[in-house]
Amino acid sequence: MNILVLNSSGKKERSRSFKVAKAFIEGLKENKYLKEEKNIYEVHLFDKNINSCIGCYNCWKNDGKCIQHDDMDDLLFRYLEADIVIWIFPLTFYGFPSKMRCAIERLLPIFTAKMAPREDGGYIHLNRYETKRKREIFISTCGFPSEINNYEGVKKVIKIMHPNNSDYIFCSEGSIFEVDKFSNIINRYLKKVTIAGREFSFENGLDNKSKKRLSEQLLPEDLYMAKSNSDDYWLNF
Fold first, then answer.
1. Stretch 154-168: mean pLDDT, rounded?
2. Domain 2-236 is in which class?
3. Residue 147 to residue 141: CA distance in whole angstroms
4. pTM for the whole structure
5. C-alpha dihedral over 201, 199, 139, 107, to 10 degrees?
């Protein structure tokens, strides 16, 4: 089983979202439902040269061959070969960060110009390849006290792109990852994430129990707000 991990945080290994993803991956390694040998390939997108899609549609005219040749050549191959793709990102202006958005747009060669109706309404471009079924997992943290009016746009995009094969783990109040006195709270949360990875099903994704556990707030909102709004708090970043 090939697991492709794409981290779009500029903090790379220091990223809070990456720490959550690593906990989930530890669970996947112990997962009794995923019995195949797991080949995990981690990529920090900020280490890669990935140009923006220029919308020339050369890939649609020439059998999926992009006119640009950069690190996306290798990543596109690895994406096609992956059984599980884990996208890691900090919530940025209520959406995906630019580096991640750039990589997603460069997946255009996977599709063709031909369109077909979607089961849930609207239309979709047909896939160029007889690709294996894969699960797409999106893992993110943000500094807001809750998901409300923050992650709705991202959730909608994920649902449109991957209506039947996606899962997400979104952790609000992520700023406390850097506060030593809250380390016990963070460690308990990361253990829940590891359990979620251990119980993850390739067919059905995260179960409802895992979703409920992972949606619980780390701190009461008023306490988190008081800490976040203190004058010296952001000097620690």
1. 96
2. alpha beta
3. 10
4. 0.94
5. -20
